[in-house]
Amino acid sequence: MTVQHIEWVDIPAGTLQRGTPLDQIDALTVRYAATGVPPAWYRKETPRTPVAVPAFRLARTPVTVAQWAAYAEATGARAISGIDEHPVIGVSWHEATAYAAWIGSQLGVDARLPTEDEWERAARGDDTREFPWGDEYVTGRANLFDLGLGTTTPVGAFPEGASPFGVLDMAGNVDEWTSTLYAPYPGAPDDVPAVEDWAADPHITRGGAFRHDVDLARCARRHGAYEEDLVAVGIGLRLAASAIATA
C-alpha cells in the first residue's frame, strides 16, 4: 500500500495568547452551563500568558484510516478499521508517536506530535478567539455532539471551521494527542490539580471529538483520555514537523 501524502501548513513564528484569564472562568461556566462542565475544568486553562512559539508545520487534517492502514501493513502494527477518508480513532499515545516516527522516516521529515502550545497556536492564531473560526460557536463548522451524527466524518469536511492558518478539523471529529504531559500552567490557581491521576494517559489532548459538547471545541480547552476505551473517547492524531529552513 502506498504511503499517503501529508499536506503541511506552515505556521509562522508568533506569540500565542495561551489559555484563559482567571477572571473569565465564571462567565465561561455560565456560557456553557448546558454542558454541565464545572468551573474546575476551565481553571486548568488559567492564567492567560503570552508564549512565543517558533515556526513549525502542522498537517492540514488528522491522520486518516487509509494512512494508518499503510502503516499497519508495512510494519505489522495494529490494524484499525474504519472508512479510508475518515480520521483514525482509538489510537493510544504510544501508537501515535510510533506512527509519527515511521511516517517521518518514509518521507524524510521529523514528523512528530505537536506540543500543546503549537496546537493552540495553530488553532488560535495571533488573537484570543474562542474557536478556530472566531469568537462565536456556529453549528455546522465542526463535527461535535450538537450535529447528532454520532461518528466521524471525512477529514476536511468542514472548511468553514478552518483556523486562521487554514488548518482543518481543529474542532471536533477526533480529539487529538499532543506530546505534552499534563501539568498546571505556571501561575495557575492552587486548586488546579498537579496531576490527573484519574486519566488513562497523562498526555494532553485537544480539539474534542464527534461525541463531545461545544466547550471542547474552544481553542484554550485542555482535555485528556479520561476513559480506557479510546475508540469511545474518539482519540486520533495529527502530525507536526519543524519548519522548513530558508536560506
From TrEMBL:
<protein>
    <recommendedName>
        <fullName>Sulfatase-modifying factor enzyme-like domain-containing protein</fullName>
    </recommendedName>
</protein>
<dbReference type="GO" id="GO:0120147">
    <property type="term" value="F:formylglycine-generating oxidase activity"/>
</dbReference>
<feature type="domain" description="Sulfatase-modifying factor enzyme-like">
    <location>
        <begin position="7"/>
        <end position="240"/>
    </location>
</feature>
<dbReference type="InterPro" id="IPR051043">
    <property type="entry name" value="Sulfatase_Mod_Factor_Kinase"/>
</dbReference>
<dbReference type="InterPro" id="IPR016187">
    <property type="entry name" value="CTDL_fold"/>
</dbReference>
<dbReference type="InterPro" id="IPR005532">
    <property type="entry name" value="SUMF_dom"/>
</dbReference>
<dbReference type="Pfam" id="PF03781">
    <property type="entry name" value="FGE-sulfatase"/>
</dbReference>
<dbReference type="InterPro" id="IPR042095">
    <property type="entry name" value="SUMF_sf"/>
</dbReference>
